[in-house]
Design goal:
alpha+beta, nine-stranded antiparallel beta sheet, 5 helices, 33% strand
Length: 218
C-alpha cells in the first residue's frame, strides 16, 4: 500500500509559529531540558505522558521494542519496572545497552535517550511495589512474562488462586520482579519544523562526566 502525503502530520509539524530550538539558550543539563519538556507534555494533557518505547537487543543482536512506563527519574537515570525473567530483562542481562523514546506527537516533539541499564536495589523495587494497587501486586505473582501459555483462562485461574492466597492484603515483592535504571550517555531533543528542517539538539556525556551539546542536521 502506498502512503500519500496529502496533509501535514503531527510529527512534521508545519506550524510556522513554532519557536525553533536554540541550542546555546538551552540548559547545559539535558535533565533540566527533559523536565521542562515533560512538563510541557503534561500541560498539553497528553495521555500516558510517561509512556516510552524501550529498545533492547540480546547477545545475538536481535532488536526488540515495546512500550513501558517511566516511573521515576533523576540525574542517576530513568527507572521502569518489569519481570526480571521477561524477554527485555534477559536481553538487558546479555547486553545492557538500551534506547528510550518519548514520542509526544501532539507537540511535534520527541526525546531519544540511550544508555546502560542496571537493576535497581531490591529495597528501591520494594518501595515502589508496595505503593501499587493490591490487584497489580497480585498480578506480578501471576504472569511468567514472555512465556507461552495455552489459554487466557489458565492465566485468569492463576490470578483467582493468588487473590485467595493474598486475601489478607499483604503481597510480598516477588524475587522475579523489580526495576531497571537506564543511565544515559546521550539525549536527543527533536522538534518538528516547517519544510522538514527539523531541530535536533544532541547531548553526549564526555569521559569527564560533563555534557557536550551539538546540533544535528535533520
Amino acid at each position: 500500500m502506498e502512503i500519500v502525503e496529502n496533509s501535514p502530520s503531527l510529527l512534521v509539524c508545519e506550524d510556522s509559529t513554532r519557536v525553533p530550538l536554540d541550542g546555546p539558550h538551552m540548559d547545559a543539563s539535558p535533565y533540566v531540558v527533559f523536565e521542562q519538556w515533560f512538563g510541557d507534555a503534561q500541560n498539553a494533557s497528553i495521555p500516558e505522558v510517561n509512556a516510552m518505547s524501550l529498545a533492547t537487543a540480546g547477545a545475538e543482536g536481535r532488536v526488540t521494542c515495546r512500550t513501558v512506563l517511566l516511573k521515576a527519574w533523576d540525574e542517576q537515570g530513568f527507572i521502569f519496572f518489569t519481570n526480571y525473567e521477561s524477554e527485555k530483562a534477559v536481553q538487558l542481562a546479555e547486553n545492557p545497552q538500551a534506547a528510550l523514546l518519548f514520542p509526544w506527537l501532539r507537540l511535534g516533539r520527541q526525546i531519544e535517550i540511550t544508555g546502560k541499564a542496571e537493576k535497581i536495589t531490591p529495597a528501591e523495587s520494594a518501595r515502589y511495589f508496595l505503593r501499587r494497587p493490591f490487584k497489580s501486586r497480585v498480578g506480578a505473582w501471576v504472569s511468567e512474562q514472555s512465556r507461552t501459555i495455552t489459554s487466557r483462562a489458565l492465566l485468569e485461574a492463576k490470578f483467582e488462586q493468588m487473590l485467595r492466597k493474598f486475601r489478607n492484603g499483604s503481597v510480598p515483592l516477588p524475587d522475579s520482579w523489580g526495576g531497571f535504571r537506564i543511565r544515559p550517555s546521550t539525549f536527543e531533543f527533536w522538534q518538528g519544523a516547517p519544510h522538514r528542517l527539523h531541530d535536533r539538539i544532541f547531548y553526549k556525556r564526555t569521559y569527564q562526566g560533563a555534557w557536550r551539546q551539538l546540533r544535528l542536521q535533520p
